[in-house]
Amino acid sequence: MEDASTDTYDGGRPEPSGSLRTFGAVYQGFRENAGFTQEALAPAIRYSAHYIGSVEQGRRLPSKTFIDRSEETLNANGVLRKAAKRLSKQPGLARWFREWAELEKQAISLYTYECRLVPGLLQTEAYARTLFTEQIPHLDDGQIEAQWAARSERQRLLPERPNTAYRFILEEHLFLRRTGGVEVTRELIGHVLDLAELRNTQVQVMPLVREKHAGLDGPMRLLETPDNQWFAYCEGQRGGLFVSDPKELSVLQMRYVKLLSQALTPEDSRSLLEQMRGAL
């Protein structure tokens, strides 16, 4: 993933994860051993050569039907089915977010600026379910449960990784919007205040009126790995942008440092959140 300036493929998904690349290499080996080119295999399994190529390059999560048809055509003896099971450990996370979620588990620093919604690591169940039920296209009940299960699992990071430094800069309007209603918002503010009490977690609020603002280009997340490498992730409407180029990272880091000075202090942020909760 540490390649060009902004490593994205197929509509904003990050470069393939290690597990997807490994599966792709295994699949390619079976295909070549069976004497098929991608173009020759395509009609046999009724998937396009482009689809097969994306799987082999680790850019696409293969469907169950694709695996089943390939098993039979390539005489894989169940190997592809077993390998594919390792690709579905996080069904509630979008493909383009899984690699970042894996990095989150190891990070020693994780810095977040958000201007659209309260970050997943800070959400309550009621707030998260509001987001899931209002999502367009609509999700079915099973998808909503998978989404919440994945988010709930991620939220364990804050209390279970006390040596990781978490910093959040949140726009004041995220709470003024009252997503989910008054009770959901009151609970959410209380939850954020509780998490801000953790020694490894810092929350700062960007006030509604701020004449100078370094984050107008949108939300960002920055993380540092145990070997002191930095990565960034910027999310939009239909995908995410994974950033590994040092020059691009330097720009985002400078912006984040400026945001820290422009947001309210942690103490003043707590006071403002308490006032907002009391006014509900």
Walk me through what this model shows.
This protein has about 280 residues and is of the alpha/beta class. The protein has two domains: about 15-85, lambda repressor-like DNA-binding domains (434 Repressor (Amino-terminal Domain)), CATH 1.10.260; about 95-280, Endonuclease, Chain A (2-Layer Sandwich), CATH 3.30.870. It has 13 helices and eight strands. The longest helix is centred in the last third of the chain and has 17 residues, at about 245-260. The model is unreliable at about 1-15 and about 90-95 (pLDDT under 50).
Task: Give me a quick take on this structure.
This protein is α/β, with parallel strands linked by helices and 280 residues long.
Any descriptors?
elongated; 13 helices; Endonuclease, Chain A; 434 Repressor (Amino-terminal Domain); 280 residues; alpha/beta
Number of strands: 8
Largest sheet: 6 strands, mixed
Backbone CA Rg: 21 Å
Kindly estimate the percentage of residues that lie in beta strands according to DSSP. 5-15%
Oligomeric form of this entry? single chain
Class of the largest domain in CATH? Alpha Beta
Distance between the termini: 45 Å
How confident overall, as mean pLDDT?
87
Number of structural domains: 2
Helix content: 40-55%
Global geometry = elongated
Number of helices: 13
Strand order of the largest sheet: 5-4-3-6-7-8
Q: Would you tell me the structural class of the helices and strands? A: alpha/beta
Low-confidence stretches: 1-16, 88-93
CATH architecture of the largest domain: 2-Layer Sandwich
The CATH topology label of the largest domain is Endonuclease, Chain A
SSE ordering:
EEHHHHHHEHHHEHHEEEEHH
